[in-house]
Amino acid sequence: MDLQNLIERLMISGDLDAIRLNPRAQFGTPTRRYVGATLLPERFTENRFTERAIRFRTVIANDGDRYSPAQIKGVAGQMVPPVEIVLGDSDIARQFTGRDYDGLLQLLGNAGTNAQIEFEAAQRLLGWCDTEINLALVELCEKQRWDALINSVVNRRGDNGYNEPVYYMNPAGHRVNAGGTWSNNSYDPFPDIVAMGNFLRAKGYQVNRIIYSTRVESILLANTMIMNRISGSTTIIAPGGVIQTISTGRVITANDLAGLFAGIRLPVPEVYDEMYFTQVGSARFMPDDVMFFACTTGRDERIIIRDQLLVVPNTLGYEAIGTPVGQSRPGRTFNLESFTTKPPRIEGEGWQTSLPVILDPEAIGVIKAIA
Fold it and tell me: pTM to 2 decimals?
């Protein structure tokens, strides 16, 4: 089997479709999780549509007698006007390296009628498509999720200076800077955390997830006042009437922090440190100087994966996946071609139409600029 026949077989057989339409890819792997997808999971949509389910809060029903008409509630303060959603396009093109290309040709040349070698060649090509093309598109969605959640804006950027910001609802008090320098032992970070939890509770929400980086966790573990809250301290009156507070000196751990959060009815924080890579460097999906709060929303996203139902509970919205240019149905798409002109190569291109959509802006809390 030659290279072109292999590519044609993969495209006709549906093996490439199984990669680009795999709903599990958005969540990553056990060793590389995309946490944003558990907050804004993918949903197939139109490319341009009106979203009517954005909610600020739910009002309670009224009592009435058995035969009274239902009492119509006004929408002011509970729902927002319909919002027009316009998805954006993104793409990537990649080439096999010369070494990989030669290796694949050599493998196919040795295949003959050996089905196992043909299978190995196909898996090598499919793995390259998944890693270099499909996951590149998946990771852009993950980055944009966190841009929307943390900064309430997604900046679409591309070649030739293209830059288009997409702004999201940002109600007052939901994204605030830390009240002081958390790494300063004279400042207690705990009131900042308590204040955000109480702020969200006052709006009728229950915090069900807190997400931060290892850096933020390390700052909390090293803060003397946090240590004192966990391990205790002793207050003495020194000669001359000077009052001194002496820490017990016990080293605290992440488990101790979990107990501290549980003491004020907040969930155990999750650590998220995953990074993405560009041609010039690397960056984090979620910044390492924030603490993110997500609340119970009652919105569950149901996803079918190989005839099995996966329920993603308490979502904050979804990642809208539309129909890419040249296609008839929603979902990512990509194309493979083999060239025998110099340099002989395989080129792969992938493209998608997508945008994060936040349905519960008030179910989000962010403490930023943690230092």
Answer: 0.88
